[in-house]
Amino acid sequence: MTDISLTVALPLLAAFIVPLLHNGPLRWLGALAGPIVLALCAALLLGQWSTYSEPFSVVIGGFSPEVGIVFYVDRLALLFAAAVPLMSLLLWPGEQDEQSARRQSLTLLLAAALTGLALSGDLFNVYVFYELAAVSSYGLIAGSGGQARFLAGFRYLMVSALGSVVALLGISLIYFKTGTLNLATLATLSDELAGPEGLAAFAMLLIGFGVKAELFPVNGWVPEVYAATGKRVAALLAGLASKLAVLIIVRILVLMFDAEEARQLMLVLGIIGVISGELAAWQARDMARMLAWSSIGQLGVVFIAFSLPGEAGIIAGVAVALHHLVVKSALFMLADRWGGSIAGLRGAATVSALGAGLFVLFALSLLGLPPLPGFWSKYLVLGGLASIGGTLHYLAMAVVLTGTVIEGAYLLRVITTLYAKPDTDRRPAPHTAAGLLSTALLAITLVAAAILIDPLWQTLDALAAQAADLTTYTSTVLGRQ
């Protein structure tokens, strides 16, 4: 079971070795080292999934769980941890140039940090891994794309630093109130965090970690960064990194702040995120900015889903988050050659018929057309909101449905442009074979999920039951019933 720690240690070690190999006679090994390490991590995590029976914890260094580095492994952690090396492989920066070693090293560093976020069982290490993810993300943003990437990267760095300070204040307040940062111990002390000070601490953590989760009001960096940086980096951040930030917030909510006020705060911020993101996406005339604002809107739906109490919220939230991970990553990959003006994409289907067809598939799933997975994820969210009732939840239902209509408007605009008669003086650039292959693999994943919806539903049920079981979490980590 200690093999699970290798999924963090190996990419972290490889991140420092790869640049050394690129500068010597073993350059070919440097090019292969990253994919090999990521493939090994994926194999280890998928192996754990296939043999998984019950949650377990790993305490690194031989310390007691209260003071040591704790990794907690349940189905929820395994699912998102396994997504990290798989998506990192799919979006691997394989181009060989003078900057390739730096890009590959930063990608490995980001993979190590995100895997650590999925597995961490204490707030101190969550903060360390979050900072590591922020630094590596900044390096990737500043190192790819056009000249605007430098200003966009600086803006991201400033917002991220501010969020880190706010999160650190929240962590400090929790430690001052309880004397511990271990999540299992904090779960047993949740009553001490039930008052105004506890809610203030949750709000600080929500805003601090919400920067990377594209949460309103700390998501202003998103459209500028995603438009300026390389689209593989945008796919990594929008598709993958944002989900690990959401996972942190959900763990904190379920274990420590499972109160109505905390959930209402998430619900309100999610509603505002949907409204602001979808309206801005509808107004955008640039493909990359449209996808960036759209990502904000869809992550608003993720927060609305996770604001639902109990297992229903976890099931709905995970379903929406996984769908967004696949679809948004794929759309940003397609935007790698279609990142400019939407009007400039007239006739793109004649140049890249497969790319246009894949765009239509992902767009239809995003809109929730049955039987694609997007339909089932929205069904879970709307059903959960309806079952609770109340003014705020009915408002959230109306916002999700209205957001879907707005999505349909701007996605239909893109689709009609792709299949319009091409201009005679200019044609959109065709996609590369590697880019289409990565996107096609995500399309296969999407279709497979639609076909295997029943076993997936059963898996989500089991996952949610474990994630919501505080007794199992505390007894597994602390070793007491």
Features:
2 domains; two-stranded antiparallel sheet; 20 helices
In short, what is this structure?
With 481 residues, the chain is an all-alpha fold. Helices cover 74% and strands 2% of the residues. It has helices at residues 6-22, 27-50, 75-90, 100-119, 123-142, 149-178, 183-188, 196-210, 222-228, 231-256, 260-283, 287-306, 310-334, 348-351, 353-367, 373-388, 391-418, 433-451, 453-467, 470-478, and strands at residues 56-60, 69-73.
Count of extended strands: 2
Which stretches of 5+ consecutive residues score pLDDT under 50?
A: none
Q: Cα distance, first to last residue? A: 21 Å
**Principal-axes shape call:** globular
The major beta sheet can be summarized as: 2 strands, antiparallel
Global Rg: 21 Å
Reading the helices and strands in chain order gives HHEEHHHHHHHHHHHHHHHHHH
Number of helices: 20
Describe this structure in words.
This protein has about 475 residues and is mainly α. It has 2 domains: about 1-120; about 120-480, no CATH class. The chain is built from 20 helices and 2 strands. The protein has a two-stranded antiparallel sheet. A hairpin with an 8-residue loop joins strand 1 and strand 2.
What topology does this entry show?
Blueprint: H1 6-22, H2 27-50, E1 56-60, E2 69-73, H3 75-90, H4 100-119, H5 123-142, H6 149-178, H7 183-188, H8 196-210, H9 222-228, H10 231-256, H11 260-283, H12 287-306, H13 310-334, H14 348-351, H15 353-367, H16 373-388, H17 391-418, H18 433-451, H19 453-467, H20 470-478
Antiparallel strand pairs: 1-2
Helix pairs in contact: 1-2, 1-4, 2-3, 2-4, 3-4, 3-10, 4-5, 4-10, 5-6, 5-10, 6-8, 6-9, 8-10, 8-11, 9-12, 10-12, 10-13, 11-12, 11-17, 12-13, 12-17, 13-15, 13-16, 13-18, 13-19, 15-17, 15-18, 16-17
